[in-house]
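Hi all, long-time lurker, first post. I run a small reading group and we've been trying to get comfortable going from sequence to structure in the token notation. Rather than ask abstract questions, I figured I'd post a concrete chain and ask someone more experienced to write out its structure so we can walk through it together at our next meeting. Sequence below, copied exactly:
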Amino acid sequence: MELLTLISAAAIAFAILMYVMLDGFDLGVGILFPFAPDDRARSTIMNSVAPIWDGNETWLILGGGGLLVLFPLAYSIALPAFYIPLFTMLLALIFRGVSFEFRHSAHTSIHIWNRAFFGGSLVAAFMQGILVGGVVQGVTVANDRFAGGVFDWFTPFTVLTGLGVVAAYTLLGATWLVMKTQGELADWARRIGVAMGGAMLILLGAISVITPAMHPEIADRWFAGLNPLYVLPVPLLAVLLAAALFYGLLSGKERLPFFCALGLFICAFAGFGISMYPNLLPPSVTIFNAIAPRSSVVFSLIGIAISMPMVLFYTVYAYSVFRGKVGTEGGYAHHD
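-- Answer (accepted) --
Happy to help. Here is the structure in token form:
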């Protein structure tokens, strides 16, 4: 059963990582949207994510649905603990999706949908950061039920993690636009990327200092005994990726900044996993005491083994088809 538990946790972690990376950049694009140089640039920005934005959110369904069926105890505790940020995030994503579709056919109300696209993207990103911070700081549990207050999730630390996720998604969005657009818009995105890269590193550094200070067991995981030797590759790789990110942005590279930003997300996710394992909801809910009965786990993993490769296939296919630069009049200019 231990092996099945680890496989289940790995499947959910992979789905969440895919969602964070893929939907992260199009949420970042939405945050940047109203600050674009002009209306033509805004249309180009919208076109850059039009073919793939809704497919990116499939990974959120896989991650959330997987948590429900594989770790029902954690789900039953997390839902009441994070009702407000969870439903605010979902409403923001819905509002953002509606505004995306309505904007294309709106005339007199287009400014409303522009603001809705920005607002939905910003609120969804911030709430996701709040959720990350809320999980890290821990949840009050008694008798396998949430026993805390309605606003336990709202603290200075969670606000900090919310701002960190907003900065990180905005960086991803900027590097996406560097890769997918041309001319003045790409130059503008490059400048934004440098600024947001600096902001993200400052906020990530602050979170990395505060987290072990809040939880001695996390500090031990990183600094006790020989542990630093095992975990050192993660921060070292992050430093190298950050250097490559700024090199790519400042030297005019098109693809390097985006993939370095994705690499930073993977490093941050790995650091989160190192800090949290085996906890799902600190301090008492772990992957081992929250796992569903064996029969449910086996049945669910069979479904995941069928569905996840299908989602991976159409994700890769969609990005392959729309891999070129975005044309200023809509569509894709080329596939090189």
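A couple of things your group might point at:
Residues 2-137+147-321 form a domain with the Formate dehydrogenase/DMSO reductase fold fold (CATH 1.20.1630).
The mean pLDDT is 89.
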